[in-house]
């Protein structure tokens, strides 16, 4: 019974009133991307656009996107919760409300938002609710954080198309992905940024098209 209670609490969203207090200052993080040396926090090219996705453990998610042609820089962090400037140790308790998220800065002339959405839908399971595979908790929920009306339209269209494809395949699973206006993105600690570049054999956690983790 105690285990069940603990599991339930971890998969229930915390309220603003019960969230951890956080802090007023941003936590330290890396300044530049370990793969392409671009600045994580900008400045970004004037023609670039930003996308943000939550797909479970952010280590493998970030590697998927930084490898895509047209992606200028990626970063991992925390989004969608209540606690300002949270740490990793705080978010994994479920008491901040944040999801592990990946921020993607991209050139829309080279890679479209719909291209990014294709990777999002195909490379994780968007029907699992407050978990992704063996990673359990609100931190690992599926979400698309949109920056404008056009991103929202494309996110909703592709969600509906993916849901229809699941039904056509005989699956009754319901997509649980949240589609929300982009909240503030809090950059994760230095050691999380481009984690699989430094640790190519490290944990990835992706459960999408049948391949747990793309080869390094």
UniProtKB/TrEMBL annotation:
InterPro entries: Met_Sox_Rdtase_MsrA_dom, Met_Sox_Rdtase_MsrA_sf, MsrA_MetSO_reductase. Residues 51-204 form the Peptide methionine sulphoxide reductase MsrA domain. The keyword Oxidoreductase applies. GO terms for biological process: cellular response to oxidative stress. It is an enzyme of class 1 (oxidoreductase). SUPFAM superfamilies: Peptide methionine sulfoxide reductase (SSF55068). Belongs to the MsrA Met sulfoxide reductase family. This is Peptide methionine sulfoxide reductase MsrA. It comes from Pararhizobium mangrovi. The lineage of its organism: Bacteria, Pseudomonadati, Pseudomonadota, Alphaproteobacteria, Hyphomicrobiales.
